[in-house]
Write the structure tokens for this entry.
Amino acid sequence: MSNVIKLKKGLDIRIAGEAEKRVVSIEKPTTYSISPLEFGNLVPKLLVKVDDVVEAGSPLFFDKYAPEVMFTSPVSGRVSAINRGEKRKILSIEVEADQTQVYKEFSVDLTAMSRQEIVNTLLNSGLWPSIIQRPYGIIAKSTDTPKSIFISGFDSAPLAANMNFVLKDEVANIQKGIEVLGKLTDGKVHLGLKAGEETLLSGISGVEKHVFNGPHPAGNVGIQIHHIDPINKGEVVWTADIQNVAIIGRLFNSGHVDMHKTIAVAGTKVNAPCYVNVLVGSKFSAILGTEEQNAQGLGKLNKGEEASRIINGNVLTGTIANLESSVGLYTKQISVIPEGDKYEMFGWIMPRFNKFSVSHSYFSWILNKLCPKKRYDIDTNLNGGKRAMIVTGLYEDYLPMDIYPMYLIKAALAEDIEKMENLGIYEVLPEDMALCEFVDPSKTDIQAIIQNGINLMIKELN
Amino acid sequence: MNVIRKILNDLKPTFSEGGKFPWLHSTFDAFETFFFVPNTVTKKGTHIKDCNDIKRVMIIMVIALLPALLFGMWNIGYQRVGGADYSIWANWWHGFLQTLPVILTSYIVGLGIEFASAQIKHEEVNEGFLVSGLLIPMIVPVGTPIWMVALATAFAVIFCKEVFGGSGMNIFNPALTARMFIFFSYTASISGEAVWYSDHKLNAHTGATPLTQLSDTGMTDVSMLDAFIGNIPGCIGETSTLCILLGAIILLWTGVASWRIMASVFAGGLFMGLLFNVFAPANPETATQIYMTLPAWQHLLLGGFAFGAVFMATDPVTAAQTNTGKWIVGFLIGLLAVLIRVVNPGYPEGMMLAIFFMNGCAPLVDHFVVEANIKRRKKRLVTVK
């Protein structure tokens, strides 16, 4: 085992509502929904129409600008609806599931396959989109050969799923998945592990393991890349979520596309937060209960006075969702927290014992030391108004990289490509700077600014 | 729902677009957010936010200024009116009455302009001037005519802040700019002895601030204990090092001000003072030579050094933004302040000029720090390969 990489910068936000380590079974949904919107800026071209019959692993659509990448159905059944929005934009494709899942067969004899054949299998099976390219955080190009491949073996985000718990029966699949990924690069496959919790995956071979010790964002693969083998201009590395590595492994072990994954359902607005094992495409209503069920108090959402915000992902980087949203290929957790759409009298000067802050003008930093188990019920209130960037030296404490975040943000705002390049735009994704956004007293939309910067880089340099 | 909330809700349509006074929207918003943290929720990016905001940051600054301000009021009464004959409260009350018009002027003029420009730009009113507006009365001599304060405040807010885009965009510290404006435009009216004492006290005391004495003769008759506690002539805020230290503790405890800057300003001043001590001639003759022998630590207690180090140099907007830059800029401020004091015959106090100059240089220092980072990153990337 290699040396432990110790990260001091960062923050574990003490938010309440962590999922208890038990997997709750849910009723099998009748319809599944796949949304092209999940995959970023692509122009989907449909391969199916309503009433077509599909198998699990049959293609549903592809991207106009990367036609080799297929997006497939996680379930077998009948295409029941294609939902469109403004300008006929495809919002989602719904599939009514068969009683028993029928899988499309893929030939997966790894020893006999060439690199190109492996790539083709991944492209056709719909699992290629689980491989993300750095820089930019977009779906990898099948024509590239990456310098190396990085996998983070843990998730450090607030209320994140515990990967050791989630993956306890998946070790064989992960091993296979890593074998597959190893054939895609001439370099190494790196696996980031959490200090103190490295035992489950320590037996995996074919990877270089790195142990990280520190608060969030230590589990972000971008941070791990920065400390292991940073990305230079012109270099490409690939990353994959560890659960998706298991899904890739499952394909090459069984020949089937089986997109089951275990996700955390967490947050203070969830009754008894727990884990659920679901198939990609499952609607949130199948997990949290439908509108009516929740109205009758039978769902998983707890009522209380405030409205709930349902988030697809974690509270720092997830997207706003609702009960009609569905679990996607990248979904690792569902968070439900209270909406903070209420006024607070003189809040800005009050001691606010019950609120979490990194500022020492509040008391949470002392309370955290006195009672380390204290957790806060954090809502979605902005807690102030938007201002110009005034406080300096703060962002730096929450980005464990040799990068000046404030200067990078300003370069992105100024759309200065050369500066962004020099200041490290290739190494960061918005998620890496989410903590800066969380602590910012000026309430700047840092993730959006960085994303715009990245989009500009993609537009100008490709 | 409580009464204030109800009144605000009733008034809101009047001040919104389509209401009777849409041109007062920013003003209404400023008062509304003063009473209540708004009910805005996050829309994109992180769904949760730290409960710290700029209002809180600014109000902590104001709270940190209060010990020095309250003491300064007493001191003004003591120095200008009552002296030892009056009770503490009587002296404080007299000082308060003399200070209040200056504070009101600075706030009314400054906030007036802030509110108007926020409205013109359709933005929320920024809280930055709550601090600047209190700093200005604390760093001008209390005898400064009101119209002069008003003019200086207006100049500082418009030409030092709003033309750059408001709080957070300015290069120079607005409060310091206001003082500079008075200093260079009306030098005669704010220097000399009359500024510090009212007439009947003039006869009793020598009447000059310790720094003026030092500048003239190289010596001062003020004891260092008095200089530490603060019952010496000087601007409202700057005399009491003790109260400034109380403010510093608040700022450092809450992390609102940078400890790097504070520490390095004091270090820079001490360094320069020691350097003078080392190079002072054995038998000093001129005032400057005698001044050079002043023990280095005494520089930190006199004049506006401590006040500048704690409250002005640490202004996050105008100071350096990188941690390395903060060390460099802070050190140079301290160094330059003492240098100007001792060798420049024209200006008894160097702190204002030193901070102002380094405000201008801070972006340059940051530039080199960031360039070093870029070079380091490029090198690291090459070596890893």
Q: What stands out?
A: Chain A has a mean pLDDT of 92. The longest helix of chain A spans residues 446-461.
